[in-house]
């Protein structure tokens, strides 16, 4: 079972194995070897890849890795298989409306238990100084509203949970 | 030596501008007090201020818009003056009046000036009356019943704006007239929420214009000077991203003309304190856009080339002092560029980003100034404007300034929250920008600058991440040498 | 150590003909293995998809660490049984790496007869668990079995090494402290239900996994109770109510992730430390093995040429090179592991038996695993040899082979006949692993001699009855006897019956041996001790 990282919503499968001068990395059908990383001070290190030494700045925050190489910063999320694979079916029977971007709830248009139809306005959020309407992805009933008006949320946060059946 | 009538100033703002004001107050030997919402408790401005007073609200923004709490805080801090910064209550005449009524000097123009010039509609009428050119427009207030039809008469493209406020909030371009109704409704809703004012106006949207503005200062003795122009044409969704002075688009003659027009408007308005007169410039013509009756975000570029501390001037002027210099004293030296570092992802439609700042290191060097409102360890939320810091450079020439800014952006280390740093780098290295050929639609016309190179090779990043991720390294280290050497052999 | 100098002319006509022949045999092996592994009627694969199940091979690939080897055992089990309709005996068994641990993987193949257990399936599972016990290898069971194939129950139910042995072996493994994890990926019915139950850990997949001693139809027949699969033995029932299962997984991949997390917690046993050098490839290319193995099984060849293409740097320290020359003995390294090799260079005679018995004791004392390379027609017969005590000396070799404590590995390179099979660590002598090359013949007697004997017997019978067999008829009865004898002494028959752990393409032998050598060192090696050698 490969390891995987998510970068900007794209899944990257990889596997690291030991080799004589460090490690070898398999990325899809590409093999990069040897690679090595030496830690220096806090958040600093040197990556050796393809015979090149690249100074690296990095920070780790839970599953998020922030890596900066040659002035470019990339945010990678380590996808723990236990978590990512467990969640595939978790919300079966429950549909969710997620936040397309971080923001603040401006107005809630529905209340729990209320039947809704696809496309109906559930919530108005404010982000980037613009209001965005969160609409129901399909027919159902409102199960739970996760944020009150004025509360802020992160990207991909579940804003409203719907149940499939109309009650 | 000009004397100040107060020893404490309350700052009714947050983030980088609050820090920037505190720095000048310190230099002037004045105590600083600041109001803050709980989400900002651990930000540098709150930590730097001599006194910090918590305020609350339904949302963090609403706390900073609550004039009663802020004036109470100013009293509590024994503040003799209040600096509103930019945004929030900075262009709210009622607030300025309430501050003055409380016996506190308002560091900004008079409420009357705010009402006249801060209100786009009145300002336009005033400017037009005084013989300066303005774009065709329809003002709701003139006759609300015919507002929409008058707007239609101007013809597309149109720009719908809230009468109050600025900073691009609530502005909408209408290219097809049948979407005018929706744009008006949305702009009104946002205007109400940001400025507590739902009035709108509509004007002809000029395609490919350049945004040029002029910094002015006025005192209570009728003296008005301009501190030359700034160009702010690199914008996304009406939000300035890169500002510079001098403008590469102006000939000396036009520069003189536009700067004197600005000073003339300020003089006609009997304007006091710092203000900015904004113009639309296109096809060799310029006309009045609006006046910002406050300190601008991009004021540091003017400070860099003129050597004048605009906040210090604001404080003296609010204290009733006379301007310390005349027009002929003002010299511009070299070229300054400011880039706005924002917690946003231009690659994903400028979506705001959030996160905890895990590593923060600013570049330093000669001619480099960082106005930052953040600290390592701070959580960036979506509650406020995404701008977190400004990087300002000063060099003898424009091209050197652009190179210096590019290097500064590349050297900046901010981990933990995605920023627009590489996007800024892409603009600073773009041919059109370097040759000075930009207009306010430049980024819309060049979407590749925002999109970046998504297909670029991530191998080095993935290799680093793999080597830094414990389960990945452990699973590699667990494999015996023999089996690692055999690889995925099958019989 | 001296490098073996090959004296084979790789450009000779003979070499080329051999090569062509053996490459064809290897290609045929690969094709048969491929078919056994992947060739399934579309309707069976479609059924798996409908049931939301992965094909057994995909399950295993997901379970394994990528970029690590998997040595599959007995791929062609049952290839000559049940009309060839139960490929691999509906079981996949192999040694692989899971989170850096060497484990035995045992997986039911639900694409074959619903994963039903046939007699050879049971034999294969018992063998897999014997391997686990002998080498102390943890086991991951991927369970998806409809139960035993009842029409053949007499061949797998009651005897000592029948199905009960699976559960006995599981219990013994647990008692030894060798952990097992089961993933219930389908129905585990009747005996099959005990596989997860007897595992130290088990995971059940929601929706598809179920465990019960009697399925709903059996329950209906026995007690009249109508009950659904889910109620009777579904994932929720077993994880919430009965406690038969430990973890519930939302999908097969999730279950595999949980299993990997469990294996990652396994204590990593200290391996037996044996001499290990830096690995080095052989000086001669392994593919030359194809040209070395004679097309005609009766042609003798020098085993040193084979050794030169198996061991590190082709270096071989030969022991007693001038004594008992029909048994080549000596030390070498294979992927860095120090081993002792016994290889046949002709029929076993007194000297070679004595040399072999002595060499085995040397290796045993120095903790050196033994590799037997078989190409043996048997012990020498005749008055002269009996007088010199060939039986007595042969007994010494068998005593040494049986009593050696170090791990033994056997590769049948060509012929394996008569008492030679025994003396060279045949299956009965518990080599840890035993592999066969495709052209090998395994039988009590070589086919020609055996058929000679059989026709002779037949002719004598007729003679007693007064008749005489005309030459033509003699040929007529000889042919079917020969045919049948050859068939049942072929490598494919041997592997079908699980007399070995699989047929190897000769060029895969080195890697396969390295993997099993490494695996064998998980079990401690007892101090050397032997029975009585007849002097």
TrEMBL record, chain A:
InterPro entries: Biotin_Carboxyl_Carrier/Decarb, Biotin_lipoyl, Single_hybrid_motif. Keywords: Biotin. The keyword Cytoplasm does not apply. Residues 82-163 form the Lipoyl-binding domain. The keyword Magnesium does not apply. Coiled coil: none annotated. PANTHER family: OXALOACETATE DECARBOXYLASE ALPHA CHAIN. This is Lipoyl-binding domain-containing protein.
TrEMBL record, chain B:
Transmembrane segments: none annotated. InterPro entries: ATP-grasp, BC-like_N, Biotin_carboxylase_complex, Biotin_carboxylation_dom, Biotin_COase_C, CPAse_ATP-bd, PreATP-grasp_dom_sf, Rudment_hybrid_motif. Residues 5-448 form the Biotin carboxylation domain. Gene3D superfamilies: ATP-grasp fold, B domain. Residues 124-319 form the ATP-grasp domain. SMART domains: Biotin_carb_C. It holds the Pfam family CPSase_L_D2. Keywords: ATP-binding, Biotin, Ligase, Nucleotide-binding. GO terms for molecular function: ATP binding; ligase activity; metal ion binding. This is Biotin carboxylase.
TrEMBL record, chain C:
One of its GO terms (biological process) is L-leucine catabolic process. Gene3D superfamilies: 2-enoyl-CoA Hydratase, Chain A, domain 1. One of its GO terms (cellular component) is methylcrotonoyl-CoA carboxylase complex. PROSITE patterns: COA_CT_CTER, COA_CT_NTER. Residues 281-527 form the CoA carboxyltransferase C-terminal domain. Residues 22-278 form the CoA carboxyltransferase N-terminal domain. GO terms for molecular function: methylcrotonoyl-CoA carboxylase activity. PANTHER family: ACETYL, PROPIONYL, PYRUVATE, AND GLUTACONYL CARBOXYLASE-RELATED, METHYLCROTONOYL-COA CARBOXYLASE BETA CHAIN, MITOCHONDRIAL. This is Methylcrotonoyl-CoA carboxylase.
């Amino acid at each position: 079972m490969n390891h995987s990282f998510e970068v900007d919503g794209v899944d990257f499968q990889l596997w690291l194995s030991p080799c004589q001068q460090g490690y070898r990395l398999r990325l899809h059908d590409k093999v990069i070897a040897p690679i090595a990383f030496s830690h220096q001070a806090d958040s600093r290190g040197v990556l050796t890849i393809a015979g090149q030494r690249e100074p690296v700045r990095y920070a780790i925050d839970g599953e998020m890795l922030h890596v900066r190489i040659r002035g470019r910063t990339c945010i990678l999320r380590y996808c723990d298989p236990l978590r990512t694979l467990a969640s595939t079916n978790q919300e079966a029977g429950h549909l969710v409306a997620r936040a397309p971007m971080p923001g603040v709830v401006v107005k809630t248009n529905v209340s729990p238990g209320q039947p809704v139809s696809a496309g109906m306005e559930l919530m108005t959020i404010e982000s980037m100084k613009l209001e965005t309407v969160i609409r129901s992805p399909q027919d159902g009933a409102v199960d739970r509203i996760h944020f009150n008006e004025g509360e802020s949320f992160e990207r991909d946060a579940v804003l409203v949970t719907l149940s499939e059946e109309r009650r | 030596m000009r004397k100040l009538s107060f020893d404490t100033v309350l700052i009714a703002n947050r983030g980088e501008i609050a820090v920037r004001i505190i720095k000048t107050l310190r230099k002037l030997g004045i105590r600083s007090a600041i109001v803050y919402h709980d989400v900002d408790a651990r930000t540098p401005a709150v930590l730097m201020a001599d006194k910090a007073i918590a305020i609350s609200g339904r949302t963090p923004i609403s706390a900073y818009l609550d004039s009663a709490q802020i004036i109470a805080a100013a009293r509590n801090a024994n503040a003799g003056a209040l600096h509103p910064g930019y945004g929030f209550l900075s262009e709210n005449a009622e607030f300025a009046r309430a501050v003055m009524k409380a016996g506190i000097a308002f560091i900004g123009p008079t409420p009357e000036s705010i009402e006249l010039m801060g209100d786009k509609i009145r300002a336009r009428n005033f400017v037009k009356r005084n013989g300066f050119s303005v774009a065709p427009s329809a003002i709701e207030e003139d006759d609300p019943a015919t507002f929409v039809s008058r707007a239609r008469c101007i013809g597309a493209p149109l720009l719908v704006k809230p009468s109050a406020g600025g900073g691009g909030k609530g502005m909408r371009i209408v290219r097809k007239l049948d979407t005018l109704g929706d744009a008006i409704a949305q702009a009104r809703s946002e205007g109400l929420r940001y400025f507590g004012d739902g009035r709108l106006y509509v004007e002809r949207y000029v395609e490919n214009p350049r945004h040029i503005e002029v910094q002015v200062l006025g005192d209570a003795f009728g003296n008005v000077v301009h501190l030359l122009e700034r160009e702010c044409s690199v914008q996304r969704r009406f939000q300035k991203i890169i500002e510079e002075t001098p403008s590469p688009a102006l000939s000396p003659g036009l520069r003189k003309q536009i700067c004197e027009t600005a000073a003339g408007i300020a003089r006609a308005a009997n304007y006091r304190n710092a203000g900015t007169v904004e113009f639309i410039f296109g096809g060799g013509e310029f006309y009045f856009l609006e006046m910002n009756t406050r300190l601008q975000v991009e004021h540091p570029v003017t400070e860099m080339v003129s050597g004048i501390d605009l906040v210090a001037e604001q404080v003296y002027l609010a204290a009733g002092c006379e301007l310390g210099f005349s027009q002929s004293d003002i010299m511009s030296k070299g070229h300054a560029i400011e880039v706005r570092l924002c917690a946003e992802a231009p690659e994903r439609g400028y979506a705001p980003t959030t996160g905890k700042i895990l590593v923060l290191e600013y570049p330093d060097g000669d001619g480099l100034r960082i106005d930052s409102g953040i600290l390592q360890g701070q959580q960036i939320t979506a509650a406020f404007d995404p701008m977190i810091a400004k990087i300002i450079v000063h060099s003898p020439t424009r091209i050197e300034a652009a190179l210096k800014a590019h290097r500064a952006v590349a050297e900046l280390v901010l981990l933990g929250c995605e920023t627009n740093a590489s996007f800024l780098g892409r603009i600073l290295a773009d041919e059109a920008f370097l040759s000075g050929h930009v207009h306010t639609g430049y980024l819309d016309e060049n979407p590749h600058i925002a999109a970046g190179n998504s297909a670029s090779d991530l191998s080095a990043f993935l290799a680093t991440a793999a080597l830094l991720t414990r389960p990945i390294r452990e699973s590699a280290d667990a494999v015996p040498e023999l089996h690692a050497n055999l690889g995925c052999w099958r019989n | 150590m001296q490098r073996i100098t090959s004296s084979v002319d790789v450009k000779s006509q003979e070499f080329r003909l051999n090569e062509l022949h053996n490459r064809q045999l290897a290609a045929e092996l690969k094709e048969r293995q491929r078919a056994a592994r992947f060739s399934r009627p579309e309707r069976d694969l479609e059924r798996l998809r409908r049931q939301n199940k992965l094909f057994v091979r995909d399950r295993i690939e997901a379970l394994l660490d990528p970029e690590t080897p998997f040595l599959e055992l007995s791929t062609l089990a049952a290839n000559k049984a049940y009309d060839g309709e139960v490929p691999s005996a509906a079981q996949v068994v192999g040694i692989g790496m899971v989170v850096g641990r060497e484990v035995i993987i045992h997986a039911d193949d639900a694409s074959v007869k619903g994963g039903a257990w046939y007699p050879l399936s049971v034999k294969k599972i018992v063998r897999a668990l014997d391997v686990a016990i002998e080498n102390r290898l943890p086991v991951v069971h991927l369970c998806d079995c409809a139960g035993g194939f009842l029409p053949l129950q007499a061949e797998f139910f009651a005897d000592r090494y029948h199905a009960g042995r699976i559960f006995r072996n599981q219990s013994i493994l647990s008692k030894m402290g060798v952990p097992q994890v089961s993933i219930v990926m389908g129905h585990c019915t009747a005996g099959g239900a005990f596989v997860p139950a007897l595992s130290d850990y088990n995971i059940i997949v929601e929706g598809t996994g179920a465990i019960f001693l009697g399925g709903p139809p059996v329950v209906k027949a026995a007690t009249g109770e109508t009950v659904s699969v889910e109620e009777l033995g579904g994932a929720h029932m077993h994880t919430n109510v009965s406690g038969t299962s430990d973890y519930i997984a939302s999908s097969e991949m999730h279950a595999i992730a949980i299993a990997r997390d469990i294996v990652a917690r396994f204590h990593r046993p200290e391996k037996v430390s044996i001499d290990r050098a830096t690995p080095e490839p052989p000086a001669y290319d392994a593919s030359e093995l194809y040209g070395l193995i004679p097309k005609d099984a009766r042609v003798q060849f020098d085993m040193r040429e084979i050794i030169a293409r198996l061991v590190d740097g082709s270096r071989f320290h030969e022991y007693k090179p001038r004594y008992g020359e029909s048994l080549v003995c000596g030390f070498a390294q294979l992927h860095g592991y120090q081993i002792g090799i016994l290889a046949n260079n002709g029929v076993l005679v007194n000297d070679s038996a004595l040399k072999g018995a002595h060499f085995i004791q040397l290796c045993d004392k120095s903790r050196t695993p033994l590799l037997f390379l078989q190409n043996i027609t048997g012990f020498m017969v005749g008055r002269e040899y009996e007088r010199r005590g060939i039986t007595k000396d042969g007994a010494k070799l068998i005593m040494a082979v049986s009593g050696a404590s170090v791990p033994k590995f056997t590769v049948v390179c060509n012929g394996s006949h008569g008492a030679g099979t025994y003396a060279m660590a045949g299956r009965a002598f518990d080599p840890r692993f035993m592999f066969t090359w495709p052209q090998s013949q395994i039988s009590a007697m070589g086919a020609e001699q055996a058929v000679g004997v059989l026709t002779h017997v037949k002719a004598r019978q007729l003679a007693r009855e007064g008749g005489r067999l005309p030459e033509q008829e003699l040929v007529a009865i000889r042919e079917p006897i020969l045919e049948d004898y050859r068939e049942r002494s072929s490598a494919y028959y041997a592997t079908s019956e699980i007399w070995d752990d699989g047929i190897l393409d000769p060029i895969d032998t080195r890697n396969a041996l390295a993997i099993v050598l490494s695996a064998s060192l998980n079990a401690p090696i007892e101090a050397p001790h032997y029975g009585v050698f007849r002097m």
